[in-house]
Amino acid sequence: MPTYRRTTAVALAAAASSALLLSACTGSNDAGAGDDPNARTTLTFWHGWSAPSEVAAIEANIKTFEDKHPDIKVKVVKGITDEKLNQGLRTGGSSAPDVVSSFTTDSVGRFCSSRALTDLGPFLDTSGIDPATTFLPQMARYTEHDGTRCTVPLLGDAYGLYYNKTAFKEAGITAPPKTLSEFDAAVKKLTKAKGDGFERLGFMPLYLGYETTVEHYGGQFGVTYVDAGGKSNTAGDPAVKAMFTWQKKLVDDLGGYQKLNRFRTSLGDEWGAKHPFHTGQVAMQLDGEWRGKMATDAELDFEIGAAPFPVPDDRAADYGKGYLSGTVLGIASNSPRKNAAWELVKYLSTDTDAVVSFANAIHNVPSTMAALKSPKLNNDPLYRTFVDIAQHPESSHAPSSVNGGAFLLTLQDHAIAYEKGAEKDLDALLKKNDAQVDKDNEQAG
Amino acid sequence: MTTVPVPSAALRARRRRSALRTLGFLSPWLVGFSVFFAYPLIATVYFSFMKYDGFTAPSWVGLKNWAYVFQDNPFFWPALRNTLWLVLVMVTCRVVFGLGIGVLITRIRTGAGFFRTLFYLPYLAPPVAATVSFVFLLNPGTGPVNTILAAIGLGEPDWFNDPGWSKPSLTLLALWCIGDLMVIFMASLLDVPKEQYEAAELDGASAWQRFRFVTLPNISPIVLFAVITGVIATMQYYTEPLVAAKVASGVIGGSGQHFEPGYPDKSTLTVPQVVYNLGFQRFDTGAACVVALVLFVLAMVFTVFLMRRRSGFMSPED
Of A4, A113, A175, A274, which one has the greatest count of Cβ atoms within 10 A? Predict the structure, then answer.
């Protein structure tokens, strides 16, 4: 090979490898991440909030971001559901989002494995942000899948128990229950019959009773869902059986599925003023931190309290924990403005003032350690109960899955069949559940 | 030896011009057919053999998607059974009820305008609003329908919350929104020649005989039209069962909530819902294409069957 050709080849190889290395170092290993974050540009940000106060809060944060980054304008699109989000991420184009937020933490596994969202690992490295120490550890975990971090937490949700203090006094209950046996006793004391139904129900245990989903109960029982090999393990996990058995017994003790379901269908909707906890039709409610604000805004004529949801009697030492979830932020893989998009994601998710002000405004739990310690954080005792639940070391989230939340939906379907009494052999039911989840995961993987 | 006459150059040019003119007139249809039917159909067949999530390049998986849909997908068979039930029962009820209302309204002498408006109005309601209203009307605990049934001592079904009642409830909803079919039947009934009724009356035909041997033969093409369009629309039935299931289950939205498709017990799940679930919620375009193809084949089979049976409905003049 002539010398000049060899020199050219070496130079080209060096240039190519340098480009590769540099791009890896600057978080630009995805196609199109070579944009200048300081260039004049307009980002499109899709989010799911739709209530006027929530929209105003996020837009106030965006305004502050734009003031700090005068070359970046942000076009905000509100009220985006996950269905719209999926389509926007797939189709791309000039009106597609650069930055997206989703309320559905269960979808993170699907977002990461399909590469719908960009791997944020290199961006975090470049910015010197360690997710494990920046974010609440549990929230840092549920925003990645199999080592790929395609999202970061924005704000979190923690689940606990709301209770009607006035009804408690009337029933002679002096403190919120800590174990499930105490809880079951309180439910029965608080329940008042009326004809074939209820004047007041102590607690609505059905799996479609708003937030009484399998994973929210499962957090209290320490359900793991999968084995070490990643296979569905509900039949092999004693916590699942304990959860199913406890819930079914409570349903039966309160009169059975039919009676409870008929009462359930007569109740007001979860997001309206006629929520049965607001109307006094149920005395205790498993719910997230937002319920405290909604109940306060509804100006109830009784006093309410909040506490962690009880734990099984043999796990009494874990009392204080709860299920965690929240909003996640990511950058669309097909965005041509990833570096600018990262500036927005970094600001919204890690700037302490931004996180605290947004958490205070929409009554969600902050997702960063710094924001949780901030003196500016809301001091309302109801709210603080959930901030404490979020920081409990045993609080948890269901594992991420290549098939999103499909495994939880499958388990919930089987749980509903069990609570109804349509399925009686629990072991066989859980084996059937594992087989279905594994087949669905194999198809999705 | 015979010789084949060779067309002259002028004749060939005339034929070519004629062919080009024909193609020119056909081109809008050809473009529409290719873009909106042929290409999507070929692409659907192609993707049914591929693993494709919409983000990464498709890869060949052979019959894996087909096996998954037919053997392992928990929604496909219940959805197919429900769709077939709705095609048979709901379409029949809609045609019979629409025709019955049409006959009654054309016979009413006073207040016909009022009743026409009354029966047509629900059709104008957007499907989501109509379904939400209907679910509230049929709420087992607080709905006025069950309150009335209880007051007169009849049973109180759980309607959309009972798998045995959910599809009949959807059928009632479809009957409530019968306005479109009623108008079509009314137009065809008013078109039946009066002299045929007069002749039948002179022959001593009863009301039923006049309907059976005069009305029905005259409006049979419209009945066939109603059946075929009803079958195709029911094959695509999506919004009403989805909204009814969501509202009745109480899972309207919110973080951490899981909606049970087809609530209760998959009884309101339809095939288009499965296509959407697989394609747009689970990112499984390949399996969604398989289900879409099954739906396409079923719609074709029903339509061909009905068209072949049209001789029983239509006279040669039709």
Answer: A113
- Report the alpha-carbon distance of residue A234 to residue A161 in Å, rounded: 25
Q: Which of A148, A153, A146 is nearest to A29 (CA)?
A: A148
Look-up of token digits 């199999």: A146
A27: left (phi over 0), alpha (psi -120 to 50) or beta: left
Q: Which of A271, A241, A269 is nearest to A103 (CA)?
A: A271
Q: List, as own/partner pairs, every contact residues A146-150 make where C-beta atoms lie below 8 angstroms and the sequence separation is at least 24, other chains included.
A: A146/A109, A146/A112, A146/A113, A146/A400, A148/A112, A148/A113, A148/A119, A148/A121, A149/A112, A149/A119, A149/A120, A149/A121, A149/A124, A150/A108, A150/A111, A150/A112, A150/A115, A150/A116, A150/A117, A150/A118, A150/A119, A150/A120, A150/A330
- Give the number of other Cβ atoms within 10 Å of residue A442's Cβ: 13
Q: What are phi and psi of A153, to 5 degrees?
A: -75, 140
- State how far the alpha carbon of A249 is from the alpha carbons of A135, A254, B199, B241, in Å: 38, 9, 73, 32
Say whether residue B284 is in contact with chain A using an 8 A CB cutoff. yes
Closest residue in chain A to residue B162, using alpha carbons only: A258
Helix locations, A237-289, DSSP H? 238-253, 257-265, 276-279
CA dihedral A378, A384, A388, A389 (to 10 degrees): -120
Interface contact flag, B281 A83, Cβ < 8 Å: yes
Cβ of residue A276 closer than 8 Å to a chain B Cβ: no
ipTM of the shown complex: 0.84
Query: Which runs of E-coded beta strand occur in A21-124?
Result: 41-46, 72-77, 99-102
Beta bridge partners of A163: A284, A305
Q: What is the rounded CA–CA span in Å between residue B284 and residue A116?
A: 13
Asked if B55's CB is within 8 angstroms of A89's CB, the reply is yes
Do strands A282-288 and A152-164 pair parallel, antiparallel, or not at all (unpaired)?
A: antiparallel
Find chain B residues with C-beta within 8 A of A422's C-beta.
265
Alpha-carbon span A266 to A4, nearest angstrom? 84
The structure tokens listed for A196 are 């074939």
Element (H, E) at A200: strand A197-203
pLDDT, tens digit, 9 for 90 and up, residues B231-288: 999 999 999 999 999 988 887 655 445 676 799 999 999 999 999 999 988 889 999 9
Helix, strand, coil shares, percent, chain A, to 5: 50, 15, 35
Measured distance CA(B65)–CA(A443) in Å, rounded:
8
Phi, psi of A250 (to 5 degrees): -65, -40
Q: Is A83 on the interface with B (CB under 8 A)?
A: yes
- A116 near A89, Cβ under 8 Å? yes
Binned average pLDDT, 10 residues per bin, chain A of 445 residues: 43 38 36 73 94 91 96 94 86 89 90 93 96 96 95 96 97 97 98 93 95 95 95 97 98 96 89 92 96 92 97 97 96 94 97 96 96 95 96 96 92 95 96 97 91
Main-chain dihedrals φ then ψ at residue A305, nearest 5 degrees: -135, 170
3-state secondary structure of A65: helix
Structure token digits, residue B101: 């209302």
Residues of A in Cβ contact (< 8 Å) with B161:
261-262, 265
The answer to whether A419 touches A257, Cβ cutoff 8 Å, is yes
Q: What angle in degrees, to the nearest 10, is found between the helix axes of A338-350 and A352-362?
A: 60
> Hey, is the C-beta of B254 within 8 angstroms of any chain A C-beta?
yes
Verdict on whether the full-model pTM lies above 0.80: yes
